[in-house]
Amino acid sequence: MSVALALPGNAAQVRPHSVRRARHLLPWLLLSPLLLLLAAFTYWPLLHTIYLSVVDVRLFQPDRFVGLANYVGLFRSPSFAAASWNTLIYIALSLPLKVLLPIPIAVFVWCAGARMAALHRSILFVPTLLSFVVVSILWIWMLNPVMGMVQSGLRPLGLQMPALLSDAATAIYAIIGISAWKVIGFNALLYLAGLASIPRELIESMRLDGATDWRITRSLLLPLLSPTIYFVAITSVLFTVQQVFTPINIMTGGGPSNATTNLFYLAYEMAFESFNIGFASATALLLFVGLGALAALKAWLLGRRVHYA
Amino acid sequence: MRETTALTLTPPWRAVGTIVLFLSSLSILVPLLLVIATSLKTPIEIHDGLPWPQSPTGDNYLAVFDKIPLGLYFWNSTATTLLRVGGQLVVALLAAYAFARFEFRGRDLLFALTLGAMMLPHSLTFLPTYLMISWLGWFDTWWGLIVPNLAAPVGVFLLRQHMLAFPRDLLDAASIDGAGPWRALWLVILPNIQPALAAIAILLFIDCWNEYFWPLVITESEDAMTVQIGIRRFLDAERGDDLGPLMAGVVLVSLPAMAVFLWFQRRILETFVSAGLKG
Predict the structure, then answer these.
(1) B34 interaction partners in chain A (CB closer than 8 Å)
(2) Which domain holds residue A181?
(3) Alpha-carbon span A119 to A115, nearest angstrom
(4) Digit-coded pLDDT (tens) for B182-218
(5) Contact yes or no for B106 and A203 at CB 8 A
(6) Which residue of A has its CA nearest to B131?
């Protein structure tokens, strides 16, 4: 097994200080808790999900193999179609908001004086410390069309706050905006760390050659930042769907009329509300395969333009 | 984060930058200040729509404990978080030691599987894990909250990095003095990676304290419900009619993570950023 799957380039690597043979069991002893836990709660569930997606689980009877029937059933269900479409919207809109918008913020913090930069860094980090439950409650209250804080601000102007969260046309955008509010600051800090590692000599020599700020940004900063951009983009694709679970669950419950549900939320509802284990497992697997494909596609598209510092 | 020569922005760009930063900081701070202000208001003041309370009161902070068993939720959250983080650190420390300091067959494959677990979303594994926890009789218990999460690949990864960067001379010296691998771990490595260990502990603490999905799935009573689930239940029950106590609850629930952050500010920022973890 290890021969077939070992990572290239590492197999023949030998440490100069390898420990004596008598202790060859020790590393396994040290690793055993981690390996048992990963086997029981990560890799076994992964295999079990595959199994559950091709059987019909029945009470007090053995499971019945149904082949791809669960998948066929899914493709015929309107809620699956809605959830798939919404999943794409969540991901597509998250990319500009969560991946691109933090870049200028990071550059401006980087350019600010030391004191201001420290202040802004701390403030930008605050939404990361809050739980998504707290953030959801906060925004439910802010956006409430009758007694919300935004409404109190609009009333003197004679304006009426629209009911963003209970309108099928706007609810998903409200949730995307809120989940962006939660992570923009953190992503800006990631970019800031990337900027801080750019050698100052490069910037200074470009400036001596008469380059403008814009030119330095375009030809030096962005290329050197591209591994970070790449990292943020991939994690945004992989985790956005999971991350919006909390606001969906608390703010809209997937509605109105499936307008905000996504594939993860659908899998949760199928498992714990309609108790359809086969459908839930098939949904989770399809989501995973889809995300993997998207991440790979993105890696391929971006990978051609990433410059490693 | 070390200082580097940044750009020398032209005045119009400097103005744009100041405005962008001012607005983004404001968009974060204003909602939070409004929450704190509302938690200090009397019921009458809440409905008059003014942003700041005229006569601040702490009544909401007492009322929230009457409305929901917040004390019990805090007990569950605190105990399970501390036990889980402690367990995660021990498991990760031992594994990182094995990965960083020993040669054995299959090491690179196992490390790849550990990193792979970091990329596998909850969405893929929650159902079988839930079935297993129920089968073990751990539904709605602390066990169900703690045990399935004891492996923290992020912790393994970061601790391994720190151990690889550890100066070899020190270990050699210890080994010449007759220290075995356990003594080397306990007496040489551990004291020297304490800052990293503390930072990872804080990161795991905040992650666990703020968790919503798993406690939602695995708890149903006050025996195991955490603060996040509790405050969410309160929101449902009151439907916004009891805004003062709700906001007081929101503030209380957020305090532990905030306090930890203020204490260890710099260190946390750097660790979070290097772990690339999302809250």
Answers:
(1) 142, 149
(2) 65-303
(3) 6
(4) 888 888 888 888 888 888 888 899 999 999 999 999 9
(5) no
(6) A45
Q: Does A22 reside within a domain?
A: no
Out of 1.10.3720.10, 3.40.50.1470, 3.10.25.10, 2.40.70.10, select the CATH number for domain B63-275.
1.10.3720.10
B3 touches chain A (CB under 8 A): yes
Q: Could you tell me the residue ranges of all domains in chain B?
A: 11-57, 63-275
The SS3 of residue B242 is coil
On chain A, the residues whose CB falls within 8 A of the CB of B28 are 123-124, 126-127, 181, 185
Q: Provide the mean pLDDT of chain A.
A: 84
Q: Are A242 and B122 in contact (CB under 8 A)?
A: yes
Number of alpha carbons in the 13 Å side-chain half-sphere of residue A182: 28
Give B136-171 pLDDT, tens digit per residue.
999 999 999 999 999 999 899 999 988 888 888 888
Instruction: Indicate yes or no: CB of A34 within 8 angstroms of CB of B151.
Output: yes
Q: Is residue A100 part of a domain?
A: yes
Structure tokens belonging to residue B126: 């929650």
Instruction: Give the model's pLDDT for residue A63.
Output: 82
Q: Do A52 and B128 touch (CB under 8 A)?
A: yes
Nearest CA in chain B to A133: B228
Residue A141's CATH number: 1.10.3720.10
User: How many interchain CB pairs under 8 A, A with B?
Assistant: 303
* Secondary structure element (H or E) that encloses residue A56, with its range: strand A55-56
* Residue A28 belongs to some domain of the structure: no
Q: How far is B4 from chain A (nearest CA, A)?
A: 6
B13 to chain A, any CB pair closer than 8 A? The answer is: yes
Tokens of A187: 């992503």
Q: Say yes or no for a CB contact (<8 Å) between A5 and B109.
A: yes
Residue A55 pairs in a beta bridge with A65
What's the pLDDT tens digit per position in A56-104? 887 777 888 888 888 998 999 899 999 999 999 999 999 899 999 999 9
B4-30 per-residue burial string, b: 16 or more CB within 10 A, e: under 16: bebbebeeebeeebeebbeebbeebee
Distance from CA of B145 to the nearest CA of A (A): 12
Per-residue pLDDT of B89-124, as tens digits, reads 999 999 999 999 888 889 999 999 998 888 887 788
- Element holding A14 (H helix, E strand): none
First to last CA, chain A: 35
Do the domain assignments include residue A6? Answer: no
Distance (Å) from the C-alpha of residue B76 to the closest C-alpha of chain A?
17
Q: Which residues of B touch A116 (CB under 8 A)?
A: 21
The domain total for chain A is 1
